[in-house]
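[Automated response] Your request has been received and processed.

Submitted sequence:
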Amino acid sequence: MQPVVASGEPSNDLATDVLTTMRQMHVTALPRNYEIFYEALSGSNPRLSLELIELGSYPTQDRLDQLGRKYFAQNHDQSIVEQAREIVAQELEDIARILRREQSHIEKYGQILDQTSSGLRNRELVSKELLEKIAGAMSVATNSTIDHGKEIANTLSEKSAELESVKSKLEEYKRLADTDPLTHIWNRRAFDKEIAAIYNGNKGILFKALILADIDRFKEVNDRHGHPVGDKILKIIADILQSSASKGMFVARTGGEEFALVVGGASEQTTFEIADRLRLLIEQTPFCGGQPSVDYGPITLSMGICMASEAECADDLYSKADRALYRSKVDGRNRVTRYSELAGRAGKNWMLYRKE
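Generated structure:
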């Protein structure tokens, strides 16, 4: 991107280039913005890079979101939802039509009962032959109503199964929309919703933390070994983070080589220990492959953590964890930095707002 080139030689670290460029262009540190800048700076989409430059030095969030919808349509595709809505509307109309028919049938049966009841009240006009006729008519009407009821029940059961199928498809679509296609863990869309939910109530803010992790010098790995190897490394790291994280911990891939973990019910010290344990696991994992075997390592992570109580909102939480991550990069990489350790930090005392 132009802002990075203008400031001197580009960094060998794509993550650093992204952070620097976004700061120079005064872009808010939102996960969806990282997606755009990672793609543009990686050089894999020249048209996206040109269009991003054309937005100027101070692009608005609306313009960035338009660009995101254009190039990352898989996160904004509503066609499946619209199709499902049409199917549901049609099925509901069919059910309403069936019920209207059933109502008409029941009303006719009611009329027969009324007529029969009226005839039976006038005992002088009732003869044995008339009673036999009435009994025969009632039997036919009753059997017809029973058969019709069975037919309606079967039809409604089929419609219910069809609606259940639509529901399953929608749930699958929702799962896919929130899943990273490469690593099969949560994606940035799901992550945005997860951290936003932290601030929906004050109670959870006191017991939540965000860990951001970025693979060190990942661009060098891609340049030296190719993107298929890079993708393999991303999958391995995602598997390690997912399998080694505590139960209930939210793990997502939020950018090209960036991951995020939302920790609940842990102090800052415990969160730091969790992050450092995961960092050490990655550092000790051999990354090899090919024939003959090639060592792709060392592969390490830089990490930044911030407690939710240190931030005003979800965007602020992400921005502060990102600042801590950036400090880990500057201080030599392969380390964990707490936002609370940074000079000039500004936190928020959420205890003042705690609800009993």
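Summary generated for your ticket: Confidence is low (pLDDT under 50) at residues 1-12, 349-356. The chain has three domains: 2-75, 79-177, 188-353.
If you did not submit this request, please reply to this message.
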